[in-house]
Design goal:
Length: 638
């Protein structure tokens, strides 16, 4: 008999304090009492019971010492004499790629389940004193179980593995396993990759599962919306990885509908379906149109009746795309060129609800305006702070102007402009000439869109929840209305206000990548809650993520589907797709060459498991403590 952790034997030294505590008694103290008769009868009865009490004290001491010995032996981990040999070590590399979830492993099992049963046959040959480690092979290898005594730990971990990664780097995982194993351990790879050209080292023992199976899956999904249009186009790419034609059905459905404010306004509803013939070994592009005026969560599903379901679904967030109203504010007659340009864009605007007003009348109208409505101040400014969402100003001067003005200037010519800003996309400003205007004074965080020799003449920025675009000149004081760029600039303005604020968020990701929101967090946000709505047998799950430097530390996406990030006063939906191009090709590896799985023979008695012996000893010790308390101390004791 020897011990795995002999250092714990020092706990036996606690026996001396236990003995001293049981033998220690209080020194009697003399007391003066008015009558001795009662005390003499009590002392006589106590002396008669002293012998029994002494025996109970010794039995209690023996039980406490026995409990100490049991706990010490359990912590030291005894091993039988035949276990003195050096423990064997096995490192298992488990392929976690999505193809291991294909249900073609025989008897209705997935490939992972079939590999797990074969791994159990190898583990059953190990003794309880042997050590096993498990390495997961995904896009990045990771250690799932360090070398630990007892094969039962590995069995329990293998039963909980959920393959679903879009790729598996087996070579990196094997390198990590060899680092753990060093020279005294055996490797075992569980995978469905063993065919020609798949590159597993010949000397690595392996369990290869799965046969070549016909499979079709979605490998791409893109939703395209044009500003002001009530319908969206869906582009789907489906891959047939088999040698035969597959007739599949592509269906699209809304899982949730949202309005312009991001509020939920509708539940699941079908958006359409189409029959798709998939040619052998090819990719088919499918285009659909759906109504997208409200936006929402869109799911595409390919019904091909194949063994791998994880690549049959794709997800997208379709943003609410309202037709904004335009409110022109002017002290007198508005600029006719501005009104004319708005009429040109009437197909993309809600012109029936658009109107003209004055700064005084706007005070009562402001609370009723929505987040997509655009207010244009033509040569005037608000006379107080108003709750507006989107503001454009043309030479607005005053204390409540969103962007303050500086010195007056004449004959201004664009010097530089921000060509990469969405407001100036495809806008050429070389011919722009400004007769008179004022230089703008940008606030901290503002973007200078156009700069003349004397300073900024066009600025974009945010004031809390309000987006602002300011021009230091009126349209009629320049040749801008005569330029082709004028209506295009206004179109970019309305698109930026009503639509691009949604596009500021990253709304799609890939399984295995960390989720990135990028924008949208309020200043002072310290944490973000991330919800997974549940799919593929996974229940709804929530992560609480910290925020550093305004960026949330969000986890990697473990499953495809929809994730919802929530923080104080805001939320964002993110669609995560699988789209593992190589995983949809179910080639399998059964019958491939290479080293087979290792075999072990048990040398210790199967009925003796030192890994669980210390738990049994600890349980026995606790039982003895309970017995000792019930017998000697319950109800006051003796």
């Amino acid at each position: 008999m020897r011990f795995v952790h002999p250092g714990f034997l020092w706990l036996l030294g606690l026996a001396l304090p236990l003995v001293l505590l049981h033998l220690w008694t209080k020194r009697p103290r003399p007391r003066v009492v008015p009558c001795l008769a009662l005390w003499q009868r009590t002392l006589a009865a106590h002396e008669r019971r002293f012998g029994v009490r002494k025996i109970r004290r010794m039995v209690s001491l023996a039980l406490h010492l026995l409990v100490l010995v049991l706990f010490t032996i359990g912590a030291a981990r005894p091993r039988p004499a035949e276990g003195v040999r050096k423990p064997r070590a096995l490192v298992i590399v488990a392929d976690l790629s999505a193809s291991m979830a294909a249900r073609d492993g025989g008897a209705g099992l997935t490939r992972m389940q079939a590999a797990r049963w074969k791994a159990h046959e190898v583990l059953d040959g190990l003794d309880p004193v042997d050590r096993v480690a498990v390495v997961g092979a995904g896009r990045r290898p990771r250690l799932l179980l360090p070398l630990a005594t007892g094969p039962w730990r590995a069995k329990r971990l293998l039963a909980a593995l959920d393959p679903g990664e879009p790729a598996a780097d087996l070579h990196a995982a094997i390198d990590l396993a060899r680092t753990i194993a060093r020279d005294d351990a055996t490797l075992l790879v569980l995978t469905d990759r063993g065919g020609e050209g798949q590159g597993l080292p010949e000397d690595v023992p392996r369990v290869v599962v799965g046969a070549s199976s016909a499979n079709a899956g979605l490998v791409g999904l893109r939703v395209e919306q044009r500003w002001g249009q009530p319908r969206a186009r869906i582009f789907v790419r489906a891959r047939n990885a088999s040698d035969a034609r597959i007739d599949a059905t592509l269906s699209v459905r809304w899982l949730l509908r949202m309005d312009a404010e991001g509020r939920e306004v509708g539940q699941a509803a079908d958006a359409g379906s189409v029959e798709v013939p998939l040619a052998p070994r090819s990719i088919t592009n499918v285009e659909l149109e759906v109504a997208a005026g409200q936006g929402g969560l869109l799911e595409a599903h390919l019904d091909a009746r194949d063994p791998l379901p994880i690549d049959d679904d794709a997800f997208a967030v379709v943003f609410p795309h309202p037709r904004p109203r335009v409110i022109v504010v002017a002290e007198g007659e508005p600029d006719p060129f501005l009104v004319g340009a708005i009429e040109v864009l009437s197909d993309s605007l809600d012109t029936e609800e658009s109107f003209l007003t004055t700064p005084a009348a706007l005070v009562d109208l402001a609370p009723s305006l929505g987040s997509s409505d655009v207010v244009i101040f033509d040569r005037c400014a608000p006379d107080r702070a108003l709750p507006l969402s989107n503001v454009v100003t043309f030479r607005a001067e005053g204390p409540f102007a969103p962007v303050q003005t500086g010195e007056a200037a004449e004959r201004l010519t664009p010097w530089t402009w921000d060509r990469g800003h969405p407001l100036l996309a495809q806008v050429a400003l070389e011919p722009l000439r400004v007769g008179k205007g004022r230089v703008l004074v940008p606030a901290e965080g503002d973007t200078v869109l156009v700069r003349a020799e004397k300073g900024a003449i066009a600025v974009a920025g945010e004031r809390g929840k309000m987006r602002v675009v300011a021009f230091g000149f009126a349209a009629k004081d320049s040749n801008m209305p005569l330029l082709v760029a004028y209506p295009l600039l206004l179109k970019n303005l309305f698109s930026w206000f009503a639509f691009d604020r949604w596009l500021a968020f990253r709304t799609e990701g890939r399984v295995g990548d960390p989720i990135a929101l990028g924008e949208g967090l309020r200043e002072g946000t310290t944490s973000v809650e991330l919800d997974y709505e549940g799919k593929w047998g996974v229940r709804r799950r929530t992560w609480v993520c910290e925020v550093e430097g305004g960026t949330p530390l969000l986890p990697e996406c473990p499953w495809p589907g929809f994730y919802r990030a929530r923080w104080g006063g805001g939320h964002q939906w993110v669609a995560v797709n699988f789209q593992g191009y190589g995983e949809s090709l179910l080639e399998g590896g059964e019958g491939a060459g290479g080293a087979g799985p290792p075999t072990f023979e048990r040398t210790a008695k199967a009925s003796f498991d030192p890994e669980t012996l210390w738990l049994q000893l600890a349980a026995a010790g606790m039982a003895l403590l309970v017995i000792e308390w019930v017998v000697f101390h319950r109800g006051g004791g003796v």
